[in-house]
Design goal:
Blueprint: H1 7-16, H2 20-42, H3 45-61, H4 72-93, H5 122-141, H6 144-154, H7 160-167, H8 171-189
Length: 202
Amino acid sequence: MAAPPDADAQLMLRVKRGDTAAFAALVEKYQQPVLNLLARTLGDPTEAEDLAQSVFVQVWKSARRYRPTARFSTWLFTIARNLCLNELRRRGRHPAESLDAPHPDAEGEPRHNPPDAQTASPPEALLRGELERKIEDALAALPENQRTAILLCRQEELSYEDIAAVLGCSLPAVKSLIFRGRETLKRRLKPYLLSGLWEEES
């Protein structure tokens, strides 16, 4: 017997029937995760915001064709990645545009939010900010599929199976992408990295 759709898929089925409140609930829940993924891929906060709006416009337009064959988040991040790849291809035709813009979180709240973030001394805060920048730079330098796989795994906590669905590849390929990406990050961040970060889960 097939498992019932997850709660978000249930909301999306309501969207399919024209329920705008259900759509608003999904936007509220997923707007920031989608924006984070796009911003770290595109490197431009303004373009990421514009593209995030396009993602949810696409969700609304595709509602009638939606089928709960996978988790809603998997379907959503697949849309987000496809639109992001389209933008990167467009940039390839316009190489004057840079992928080196600072990440939108660089001047905002720290991504990791350690418990003592509010009480850190100025030198500690500076070191933490430097580490954040090094992590963002190292992530940005990864191939797109490795970076996306790691972000979906570490930030959005998608399963390897869901990541495989988003990337359109096999489960072993996902494991290989994440392993190679983590090894590259650990090598590049070794002089700066806090103990345990990016380590394989036991």
